[in-house]
């Protein structure tokens, strides 16, 4: 079976609806037809100053959420990136294939280093996408299910794979991004021109999966819309309403067309109220299940250890090929 691989950073106390609809929901459905590898990108989470205790907690909460949303540890390797040391090792080799200019052109680096100035950003932030390329290439996956904001990193990954294959010998498979058009970018509820984001959304703009459902309902009811009254899908003219329609459609499986038709002649109040109910219905059991899983730390540790073992079988083999081709002596 071809492989599928993706990762998520443990940089918040909860995943949000952008993470879920843009990426992790696809992880769940792809497990059936692919050999799945899903990891928590804890190495990526230290490129900014962080609290070590929180990182540990958030890594565990991330694992629990993945299982609660339907990633099956029997079928999928779920692990923490730091538990598979091959990620950091391949990253070093790829660092040596990447020019500083190429790394500096990544929009994420430009955005994240803009505030304090490039001189004070960590080198880790600069080489972040190269570690991401290593994460991916180690497993030779066909697909990498992510949101739109990761597309540029996938392009770099393909460039580096090609460069290595060309310079040494064909070693890596060129991975394809798996990005669902409808949910590739979920927007902030309070500022619907910006993407929903752990680092930049204000609390009123972001719906966390582990939020108190009542508070999520309230955020939806007060989401920014427009002065028109018609529920209609038009991302240019009606960014807020269109974003709510996207979320509504993704969570219920109903088409946008069908939703639009059913709100004909009704106002935004009814529309938002119903979406709030739909979201509450979705997050309530998810939250309960996550907390249940978190209560059994030993079991979570064991899921991650088993996942890391499965991952290392594949990663170690790729890294051995790479080391051999680069000319390193056998250990
Ligand atoms: P991260 O942790 O920021 O986000 C995890 C996933 O959620 C998607 N996403 C969104 N999708 C739609 N709308 C949004 N508003 C939204 N916000 C986030 C992201 O696109 C991502 O798929 N660099 C990665 C983690 C990573 C990775 C990897 C991913 C590390 N190594 C290897 C794939 C393969 C990141 O920071 O994702």
TrEMBL record:
Gene3D superfamilies: HUPs, Tyrosyl-Transfer RNA Synthetase. Its EC number is 6.1.1.2. L-tryptophan binds at residue 135. It is found in: Cytoplasm. Coiled coil: none annotated. A motif ('KMSKS' region) lies at residues 195-199. InterPro entries: aa-tRNA-synth_Ic (IPR002305), Rossmann-like_a/b/a_fold (IPR014729), Trp-tRNA-ligase (IPR002306), Trp-tRNA-ligase_bac-type (IPR024109), Trp-tRNA_synthetase (IPR050203). It is an enzyme of class 6 (ligase). Keywords: Aminoacyl-tRNA synthetase, ATP-binding, Cytoplasm, Ligase, Nucleotide-binding, Protein biosynthesis. It comes from the Bacteria. One of its GO terms (molecular function) is ATP binding. CDD domains: TrpRS_core. It catalyses: tRNA(Trp) + L-tryptophan + ATP = L-tryptophyl-tRNA(Trp) + AMP + diphosphate + H(+). One of its GO terms (cellular component) is cytosol. One of its GO terms (biological process) is tryptophanyl-tRNA aminoacylation. Its main location: cytoplasm. ATP binds at residues 9-11, 18-19, 147-149, 186, 195-199. Belongs to the class-I aminoacyl-tRNA synthetase family. Homodimer. Catalyzes the attachment of tryptophan to tRNA(Trp). HAMAP family: Trp_tRNA_synth_B. This is Tryptophan--tRNA ligase. It comes from Nocardioides marmoriginsengisoli. The lineage of its organism: Bacteria, Bacillati, Actinomycetota, Actinomycetes, Propionibacteriales. The gene is trpS.
